[in-house]
Amino acid sequence: MLFTIWRLPVSAVETPKKILMITSYHQGDDWNDSIVSGVQEIFDKYNKRTVLFIEYLDIRRNAGDDHVQLFFNYLKGKYAKKNLDLIILSDDAALNFFIDIHVQLFEDVPAVFCGINNFNPEILAAQSNITGVNEEITLAETMEMAFGRIPIFPVMQQPMNCASLPFVSNNSISLTYNMNVA
């Protein structure tokens, strides 16, 4: 009986799905690592037949066209014959990079994006086989709700002016954008 099971045709064994995740930043960036960890956790829990490749665009530490071209060449060399099933894009830089290069490298591979701050649906107008989640920050509304629920603060009678509130954070592009929107 064991001999019979061992001789089952290869087609009876499910081929693992090959997924490439391109993140905008570097390993060690807290936000970036939390997204990667979340994706890994989901695949580990729900789909044991997945091979997840993770590549870091590392755009914060290596901005510029030369770096982007090197990253493109690296991906081209590494993934040209991998027959990927899906590409996951984390944050704006990864999405923008993918839109610029996907026809050359990954034309028929579906893509999903997440963590996009400055999403404009028009960037997907000429694209196909791509979808994702927009991360829209409503800082003023969030602060109004938070202060309204904390008993030591009086309920706000007028819209909140976030410019008058102190914030402790890093000096990232995302923070600057979010503060300008608020």
Description:
Strands 2-1-3-4-5 form a 5-stranded parallel beta sheet, sandwiched between helices. The chain contains 6 helices and 5 strands; from the N terminus they run αβαβαβαββαα. The N and C termini lie far apart (68 Å). It has 182 residues and is α/β, with parallel strands linked by helices.
Determine the N-to-C terminus distance: 68 Å
The gyration radius over C-alpha positions equals: 21 Å
Low-confidence stretches: 1-6
Order of helices and strands: HEHEHEHEEHH
Strand content: 15-25%
Helix content: 25-40%
Strand order of the largest sheet: 2-1-3-4-5
Given helix and strand content, the structural type is alpha/beta
Count every beta strand, where a strand is a DSSP E run of 2 or more residues.
Answer: 5
> How much is the average pLDDT?
81
Helices, by number, come to: 6
How would you characterize the largest beta sheet? 5 strands, parallel
Shape from CA axes?
Answer: globular
Key features?
alpha/beta; five-stranded parallel β-sheet; disordered N terminus; 5 strands; 182 residues
In short:
The protein is of the alpha/beta class and 182 residues long.
Task: Chart the SSEs and their pairings.
Elements: H1 2-6, E1 17-23, H2 30-46, E2 50-56, H3 65-79, E3 86-90, H4 92-105, E4 111-116, E5 130-134, H5 139-149, H6 173-181
Parallel strand pairs: 1-2, 1-3, 3-4, 4-5
